[in-house]
Amino acid sequence: MNDYRIRPAREADASAIFALIRELAHYEKLTHQVTGTPEILAAHLFGTPAYAEAIVAESQEQLVGFALFFKNYSTFLTKPGLYLEDLFVQKAYRGRGIGKALLKTLAQIARERGYGRLEWSVLDWNETAIAFYEKMGADVLPDWRICRVTGESLQSMSDA
Question: Thinking of the domain 5-120, which architecture would CATH place it in?
Fold first, then answer.
């Protein structure tokens, strides 16, 4: 019997989800990039419009993992898709099937909504995650690179 459950995030979870985001950033050595607040996260997950959604893993009334996702679109499939921005399970709770359950739930959401795909990015040095994702059936695409424009570069591009 599992000692956790997967459920949709609630507005009251925003602070706990944000704390998990900070743990993820620490793990990825990207803490300096976390600039938001739990209040901003709550507004973006539960406001109008909602920009993203989240599901959480809960064990003994404590959030121990989350997946944050949003809709994207595939022009080749001519279907919407689900983009997984972040998936994280606290270290003490890994190996219990929580990550697998979060991914399975996301796949179910995508299928129920008639989406054509579920996709996400993974850091190339995170061999443990890559192996996990491949074991779950994901193809890690070797030929694609993420392009990102933020901060001053975004300002410059928009002014050009």
Answer: 3-Layer(aba) Sandwich (3.40)
